[in-house]
Give the backbone structure.
Amino acid sequence: MKMKLIVTRRVKPLRYGGVVIPLLSLIIGVVISQLILWAVGVPPELFYGTMAGSFIAPEMLRPFVLLTILGAALLVAFIGAVWNIGAEGQIIWGMIVAAYIGVFVAAHSIKVPLSELPKYESMPGAQVLDATYGVVSVVLWNPVLAGLVMILAAAAVGAVWAAISGALRAYLEIDEVASTLIMNYIAYYSLNQLATGPMRGLSVQAAQFGRTDALNDALRFPRLPIPGTTVTTVEVILAVIAFVGVWFMLKYTSFGLRLKILGSNPNALKAAGVDTRKYITLALTLSGLIAGTVGAALFAGDYFFLGKIDNIVSPPTQNMGYTAILVAWLAMLDIRAIPISAYIIAGLMQSGATLQANLGTMAGLSGMISGAAITYTLIGFVLLTFSVLRVLTEYRIRFVRGGPK
Amino acid sequence: MMSLKTILDLVLAAGPAFATYYLAAVGHGIFEKSGVLNLAIDGVFTLGVALAFAVSAVYMNPNLGLLASVIVASAFGVIIAYLTTKFPTSHGAIGLSTMFVGYGLASLIGVPIRSTTPNAAWYPLSDTFWAEIIVVAVVIGLLAQYMLRKTKLGASIRAAGENPYAASALGVDILKIRLIAGAIGYALIGAGAALYVLAYTQSWSEGTGMGHGWVAFAVSLSAGRSPLLTLLSAAVFGGLVNYSYSLQAAANLSPHITNMLPFIAALAAMVIYAVTPLRRRLAPPKGLGKIYFKEERTV
């Protein structure tokens, strides 16, 4: 007998679909990824062991916090049916500007004669970056002011970078998926150009590897006092602001309401006399603004310098701009579900990183499988399963014998 | 004064880059003409690049690498077409998730092979081979143009993209047509990807090819998905990419800037296309990326 697959619309949406479907997708996606990784030599017990451990590891707190910010950022655009795939580029520009302020404006590097180095070692606000070349970083600004300016500038430049794609979509009807993606690559290479060129530092490492000088200790974002985690207080505050801000905007403001209608029924918005083009541009701008702050967090909270990207697969964003797409989608564009979704995805990301480290100690597999490859595979299969299973919330899929032709 | 021979040499040397973008862009155009928004292109392109390298490295035969890339990419095209047409699901979500799958698999397949066999069997760096692939690519493009414009299959593909409901009422099997368009389109994308690594870069490391699927995407878009006009945009991009090193030397540019140029050009091409009268003549299919759902009777 011939089987036929039939798709029919449900009378009522699937009950508990909002919980069951994402969880089911997660399980199926993880299992598929595991089978593929098994095929390339990753033992299943190591995979699941690492995965289980990763969800309770203190290291995952940082990706969780950053993905909450980015998930909220992307949600703002996605809810208006504007597809911001360019968070990567927006983060990168945030990093660049934060680095400029941190290393050239709020502090700066000077070259001093080696005999004068001891004088700087004891000077408050001065930090010896390189004792062989005699490079000293001198703080010029109050650290709180410097941190604030770094974040605001990163937000502004992220907003501008996203606004370009927003305006192209709104006024010239250029698909924003393509333009935001293409602009990610422009941002990556801009970082390389700037880090190896105009922003290259004075220290020996900077000269050797093509990067900026390190950020002065005094300007680095302080870490949260939890052992094992590298998350900073600033990032936690940013996450709370982004989460509460987006939630409030969507629930209580007319801007949020219009954004939601832009996503569900743009013609109704047009009929009501609203300039939808303005809202498309604003949705992307606001999305880029929030994403940009993550750039400042990555620079002043994690890397402390801007370095050339050697492998385009592993930019300093750790691909979180892409990973956050999954966070927003898995939350089914509900802001309240963003932290849950961010937690799950952070666990997956952490698994990728820990798995890479664990594989590094295994004979024959060291250096064979990159964390990025694992993360991409996991994201890809979870998202693909979810994209298909999501149909089940509103449709019924059945196999019938024979069926009509 | 440049002799004719020098000019010919310069044109031929850009052959691998041209053929890569031309084939991939024509494939992209055919698939999108059928109404499926093709956002998976960069992932499958990257996967095709890794597969072509891996297979050619294992069997020391570039033709096998090309074949593997074509077959696997084509299978991806069929899967994407099936998922987006059979189920009322977002083309964007299916496309982007497939892109990530492609990135992940590309690394997982390529890296272990590269660690033992960093050099695959590449295509020859010869004028004759370059001339061959240019001619073959152009012939394939012209055939695609003929197929889309003059055959029943082409008319069905375009109808499926413009208005699938009307086409279906006239007896076009939308699913079947999109499956065919996906198979043909992605076979060409796979061929372009294979040429990218086997004839153009002639080396593979993790991430090779990433982003160049998007360049092919832009090459196709800026030519309104027409195989004939794509000849022009692919020639421009092929030249730009191929001569990036000469450009570096001639204009004293850094490698980062020349790496960036194809992406800036891609964006610029889309803008130019959008602000000129070309926009209306080469508009995207009206049904592109829209969910196609026809209630099926279950009895």
User: Anything to note?
Assistant: Chain B has a mean pLDDT of 90. Chain B touches chain A through 57 residues (CB under 8 Å).
